[in-house]
Design brief:
28% strand; 274 residues; PDCD2_C; 15 strands
């Protein structure tokens, strides 16, 4: 079974010392940048049209990325996000070696404080196995299944998007999860739709391939300060975040941009037979 970690929102808000803790993964608040020069770089890339959705502490097993942060920004403009390699979600990577870190000027960019949500810590736990889960899947809660067949008609299985069924069944092991973190270079996201899946992933600017690192789930949307009734409100089924497989040193010289694939939920869902 693949080793997958899940992210959950902790109770309570964060104080200033928490926001300055490089190892604190969180949603909202101002981004904590590893270098003061990254403030200007981030402003050039995002302007005033993006807000910090979350930042995730994700060190790797090499010296150059001994300390490593993934930043995910979301558009605050009043327009719907497009599916695919979206510009409405921007992903950046910052990192430093252990020796570099001692001399860095960590900067909390208060001018870029997120309006999307108040800062809350993301706690991590391993995904429970199917056997360990005490949660009953609710995928087919609206579908009546009879043990007897008084009409003697042939049984017809429910139709619909099987990817959506698989998604809901897997998420039901821990319904409060907001993200899934992958450790294998060959991992694939838990897609919520059989359509809208990328056929190839663009390489990093350094030339190395990008691999899936994490996916952000739609459960996070309920925590955002947005008008959910608006047709242009932030919305997604899956945000799949792909990052440089080598954690290259572009992120040691400044913030390096990575990519995000946005997939929307299947409109087909699961349908009972007529």
């Amino acid at each position: 079974m693949e080793d997958i970690d899940l992210g959950f929102l902790a109770e309570g808000s964060l104080n200033q010392s928490d926001l300055l803790d490089v190892e604190c993964s969180r949603i909202g608040g101002p981004p904590l940048l590893l270098r003061s020069k990254d403030v200007t770089s981030l402003k050039e890339k995002c302007g005033s049209n993006m807000d910090l959705l979350l930042q995730m502490y994700a060190p790797k097993n090499n010296d150059g990325s001994f300390h490593r942060i993934i930043y995910v920004f979301a558009s605050n403009e009043d327009k719907a996000l497009e599916e695919g390699w979206t510009n409405g979600i921007r992903v950046f990577r910052g990192q430093a070696s252990e020796s570099e870190f001692e001399n860095l000027d960590l900067t909390l960019d208060d001018n870029a404080k997120s309006k999307l949500c108040d800062p809350r810590e993301i706690e991590v736990d391993s995904e429970p196995s199917n056997e360990a889960s005490e949660i009953e899947p609710k995928v087919l809660e609206n579908l009546t299944v009879e043990t007897e067949n008084p009409t003697n008609e042939p049984y017809t299985k429910p139709t619909g998007d099987t990817s959506f069924l698989k998604f809901q069944k897997r998420i039901s092991r821990a319904p409060d999860q907001i993200l899934r973190y992958y450790h294998s270079d060959s991992s694939e996201p838990l897609w919520c739709n059989k359509d809208g899946i990328p056929t190839n992933v663009p390489n990093c600017s350094c030339g190395a391939k990008r691999i899936l690192e994490t996916q952000i789930l739609s459960t996070l949307l309920t925590e955002l300060n947005i008008d959910h009734s608006s047709e242009n409100a932030l919305d997604w089924g899956v945000l799949a975040i792909y990052t440089c497989s080598e954690s290259c040193d572009l992120a040691n010289k400044g913030i390096a941009e990575e990519v995000c694939w946005l997939q929307k939920f299947s409109e087909q869902g699961i349908e009972a037979p007529e």
